[in-house]
Amino acid sequence: MGKTTVSAFAKRRGAGEKLVMITAGSAAESAAAYAAGIDLILVGDSLGMTMLGYDSTLPVTMEMMLHHAAAVRRGAPDAFVIFDMPFMSYQTGIGDAVRNAGRALQEAGSDAVKLEGGTDPELIRQLVASGIPVLGHLGLLPQRIQTIGAYRIVGRDEAAAEELIAEALALEAAGAFAVVLECVPEELGRRVTETLHIPTIGIGSGAACSGQVQVLYDTLGLSARTPKHAKRFAELGETMRAALAAYAAEVKNGTFPAAENTFK
User: What b/e sequence results for 13-52 when a residue is b if at least 16 CB atoms lie within 10 Å of its CB, and e otherwise?
Assistant: First the structure.
């Protein structure tokens, strides 16, 4: 496929081509995603729940994200990899944000960073001016679960919808190359997409968005619970359990290792 840059995504939006993004947290996952033709790989802080066992994204640190992002890069050297800036890595000032985002590119080899919320446009401008592409993220913001109280749809009334559209325009004006829209009503997803000149990447925000993103574990049937916005395209959790049960049974009954698995 070759290496892609941010300018290609705007061109593809203009041509009406849908963009596909998936999360990944390991070399094996990113290698599979790249081989499947996925356009953007997000090293999402959702790995705190899917891979590390936390009940939210809040415990995830920069060091954790750097570790996983570097593995994702090694698995797919030519993929476009986006580093999800974790909680408190960019909220403590522009200097800290630029420094941490720079580490995502320098140390992990990521191509861009993602920030949650209608972040200070000046921060976006500083990051872009420093050579760091930025993906915005509006709607449901998992890093703010402590203040919003619950995972819920955002923008159901007109005032909230207008506020989100204004935030999206501010992100575009500040230099973001695209915006994730998480869990907003379908009609609002369409309005934002038609208003902006940059791509929108939806998750639970309707088919009118310029592209879609999903959590890999939901897509492959590895999550215990499937969100409404997700579809299980496989049941790898069941496959894994069956394979491991078969392995355990063969070890216990003495049929594994067999002659072909043994060195003479």
Answer: beeeeebbbbbbbbbebbbbbbeeebbbbbbbbbbbbbbe
